[in-house]
Amino acid sequence: MRFPAITKMALVRRGLHSSAINRVPLLITPKEYQDLPKRTTLPLDVSWHMPNSTRSALAEFLSGPRLPNAKRFDLDEVAELDLNENPLSLTHMLPKPERFAEECRKLGIRNDDHIVLYDTIGIFSSPRALYTFKVFGHENVSVLDGGLPRWIEEGYETENGEVKPTLRESQYKIPESWKKDWVRSYEQIVSNSELSNSDPISELILDHRPLLRFTGESEEPRQGLSSGHIPNSISLPFSNYLNSPNDNDKIPYYSYKSINELKKVFEIALGGKEELNKFILNQKGVIFSCGSGMTAAIGWLANELIKQNEGGKGLKTSLYDESWTGYALRKESKIVKGKD
């Protein structure tokens, strides 16, 4: 399967080296998406909104605007809903491989299709969807940087009204194996939290919620849930990875910072360039966490972008699937308040 070459100039603008040209990019611009072959490319709306938001991702998709020929991949529906496996009824937990493959079949996705994921914020829930596809071994997948708002802002065609039905289900194969080492459980988080960050076998938890929720000074958006943080975790709000909306944009959107800026974000969080290099050299684990496992993937993808640019060199990472909601719902969990 061939993809049109992405120009060296486009890569330089984003901070990528020319060695990344022959790979399916993890992140693409609207122009790069527009140039992809339509027969083997499928856009998926993976929008999701916070539980205290009045917006409905599904309603917005059904009414439009949306990318032409887009389908809807609902991260809360394509999830682990079995109470035996998810007793806390947490949202968008990773599904079983069979459930993932089932949804891909319904949407007509083939194993070698190039899937382009977007959301209506710009960069918010699309990295979590990419993480899901990658966990189950679907390699030809990208995130549309800036999402639907940027697509509209740059003048590309959209679709409204009735969604075109999937004409034929695919024969998407169930993944024979999946990347279990990319996921951390509650039990692993508790065991890890009992270790000092200086312990060579410990993993560092980066909490991507806003700082005041981390310190316990602000309430959680989920009613009745305590704020605070996991012992020995560090605050790194997900907004640090992103460019804020431009005042000149008619439709505001968030997009990823450049590769060099993303590297600087990790340097600051880990205590400097030397410390970051130690983490990479020693392959000391880093765990991304957030409120519910959604925006943690923004940090995960930031590291993957660096690795794609650096020939695979980057942090060894995983994602705490339950994140803060699953942790704080358990009465036995130790919750720390303040910045330490």
Automatic annotation (TrEMBL):
<feature type="domain" description="Rhodanese">
    <location>
        <begin position="66"/>
        <end position="160"/>
    </location>
</feature>
<protein>
    <recommendedName>
        <fullName>Rhodanese domain-containing protein</fullName>
    </recommendedName>
</protein>
<dbReference type="InterPro" id="IPR001763">
    <property type="entry name" value="Rhodanese-like_dom"/>
</dbReference>
<feature type="domain" description="Rhodanese">
    <location>
        <begin position="204"/>
        <end position="336"/>
    </location>
</feature>
<dbReference type="Pfam" id="PF00581">
    <property type="entry name" value="Rhodanese"/>
</dbReference>
<keyword id="KW-0677">Repeat</keyword>
<keyword id="KW-0808">Transferase</keyword>
<dbReference type="GO" id="GO:0004792">
    <property type="term" value="F:thiosulfate-cyanide sulfurtransferase activity"/>
</dbReference>
<dbReference type="InterPro" id="IPR045078">
    <property type="entry name" value="TST/MPST-like"/>
</dbReference>
<dbReference type="GO" id="GO:0005739">
    <property type="term" value="C:mitochondrion"/>
</dbReference>
<dbReference type="InterPro" id="IPR036873">
    <property type="entry name" value="Rhodanese-like_dom_sf"/>
</dbReference>
